[in-house]
Amino acid sequence: MCKSMWSVIVVCVLLISLVPGPAALAKDPTPLEEALAGKFKGTTVNVKGIYDDSWGDDYRDTLKSFEDQTGIKVMYSYTDEGGDFLAGEIEAGRGPDVMDFSYLSPVRRFAKAGKIVDLAKVVDIDTLRSRYGQNWLDAATVDSPNGPIIGGLWSDFFLESLVWYPKAAFDKAGYKVPATWAELLALSDQIVKDGGKPWCVENGFNGSNPGYGIANWLDNMLLRTGTAADYEKWRNGELPADSPQVRKALQAIADVWFKDGYVLGGRKGINGTTMYDVARPMFATPTKCWLLMEGNDTLDWDQMTDYTVFRSKEYGKDYDFFVLPPMDKASGAPLVTEGHITTMLHDRPEVRAFMEWLTTGKQAEQWVKLGHHAGFSPGKDAQLDWYTNARDRKLAEIAADAQKAGNLHSNTGVSMPSSVMGAVWQSLTNYVGGADLDIALKQIDAARAAAQAPGPTATP
User: Fold this and answer.
1) Domain for residue 216, yes or no?
2) C-beta separation of 377 from 154 below 8 A
């Protein structure tokens, strides 16, 4: 009897071992897998974004492989992302299936209204984490009526912490790239001593929206004069503008912007200088200013003109760059980024398939390989050989190293409501023009308090 019993036990164990466990069970195909099998052939996904004219044509080209492989038609068109028409269409449920925004504020607004589809409901969260660093997922997390959601995916980004200089003239003058903030100021002093103006500075942005320059410098100096935790509090509305940390960062900016002889055009000329003309004096003969802190997108983005002087110059010969130095050599040099976030507004299988395809990095790879759009891919699968020139490969490598070190930070425009960011721009522009700093900081804090207040008066 015992022998028989043991036989039964053995047979049962064998049978149990043959039953597939959860990992072995076949998983349901993802929307993208179904699309690649032709299930949604003949359907259409409507996409809108900020790219127009030749850039819009380039963007459409990056979507062709998805169309060819799935039979799904992607209709892309330009729209004014900040316009009332788009907002009205989205709020009425008539907006595009997918929208590519260049800042997060509208995503926050529409997510609070329940108009944004949670990306984590479209693509498994473990898959998302395998494709993006946690910082990118955190930077895309927004509030919805049902709690926090991942409001989209960051499709590309730019680096905002770079100092450009005219290498040929720089080397001839015997100047050296500084490794610390003190060395940067010493270099500036030496240029003044040699009869030059060390800094090219603009706060006029595109001529109609001044303030981006000072806001960008403030982001970078907060990370250098304070801590990453201070910076996150500032971005998230927990650190007042009228705080010791913000004042310390602004003083570091003033040490450059307002020091006699440091800036071409002086303090009075900063607000009147735009990103379109700020770099030209750097390549004049003789050199009129030597150092320019701007994002890498400023070098390439031509807004359908050909204003950027860098297009006619050779990287590594005529010009080069370095990351804005830390306060001391022991501290890491943080990088501030800005970028585009692609959001899903309508939940249909073909739209899910398209969003899942975007997370694979295929579209980002094609965009980067075009070689003239200045953007970098945030995906973990991004390869340096995607980048078509030595400058962008070097920048991509610097960004990857910063990502690994935890030194890659989204700019404040990502987290701040548009009304608060507008107050930062305007109030600090007034300060640059000579207004009282105390008043400027109080105006920013008042705008933040209004944005955070409950009720219809709060601005998203």
Assistant:
1) yes
2) no
Residue 76 and residue 194: Cα distance in Å, rounded?
53
Q: Domain check: are 223 and 247 in the same one? A: yes
Q: Which helix (H) or strand (E) holds 187?
A: helix 181-193
Q: Which DSSP category does 45 fall into?
A: E
24: in domain: no
Distant-in-sequence, close-in-space partners of 8: CB < 8 Å, separation ≥ 6:
none
The Cβ of residue 229 has, within 10 Å, a number of other Cβ atoms equal to: 11
Show the tokens assigned to 203: 């706060």
- In tens, the pLDDT along 250-294 reads 999 999 999 999 999 999 999 999 988 899 999 999 999 999 999
Partnered with residue 143 across adjacent β-strands are 148
Enclosing domain of residue 140: 38-157+338-402
Q: Is a pLDDT exceeding 80 seen at residue 363?
A: yes
332 with 353, same domain: the answer is no
The residues, any chain, with a CB within 8 Å of residue 45's CB and separated by 6 or more, are 72, 73, 74, 75, 97, 98, 350, 351, 354
**Preceding peptide of 286 cis, ω within 30°:** yes
Confidence of residue 406 (pLDDT cuts 50, 70, 90): confident
Measure the CA angle with vertex 66, ends 63 and 69; round to 5°. Answer: 145
232: pLDDT strictly greater than 80: yes
Output the average pLDDT for the chain: 89
Helix (H) or strand (E) holding 229: helix 228-235
Inside any domain, residue 13: no
- Confirm whether 327 is domain-assigned: yes
Look at residue 459 in the predicted model and tell me its pLDDT.
42
